[in-house]
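User: Hello! I'm new to structural biology and keep hearing that structure can be predicted from sequence alone. Could you demonstrate with MmcQ/YjbR family DNA-binding protein? Please show me the input and the output so I can see what each looks like.

Assistant: Of course. The first part below is the input, the amino acid sequence of MmcQ/YjbR family DNA-binding protein. The second part is the output, the predicted structure written as tokens.
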Amino acid sequence: MNESEIQQYAMQIATQQVLAELSYPFGEDIHVFKVMNKIFLLTSTAQGQIFVNLKVQPEQSEILRELYPSIKMGYHMNKKHWISIYAGEKIDAQLIEDLVKTSYQLVTEQLTKKQKQALAIHSTI
């Protein structure tokens, strides 16, 4: 997948998540997806390259960076909990989908009980 395909597909998967909202708190060129006001995906361009930032478990971050040369520590994010995905040979749609859904799940697991209840209600609608 090229960088535009990665970005578009990640955004497509993000929009399919329950109560996911697209916002632009850092400027119109930085797409931010949130659930219950918590970021789970951020995508933009840096030094002429499109990237997608996603939340991951710290152990998963290390493994992914070893397996995929185009996955780096999160650009302008907590390097322990976030990764940046750039275009690369091994990056495919299934990987992007899995990583977007995992990021969403990690964020929703940290929601308050009340937020989780609201999310559960919307999940069944």
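User: So the tokens describe the shape?

Assistant: Right, they're a compact way of writing down the 3D structure. Reading them back into a model, for example: The two ends are 33 Å apart (CA to CA).
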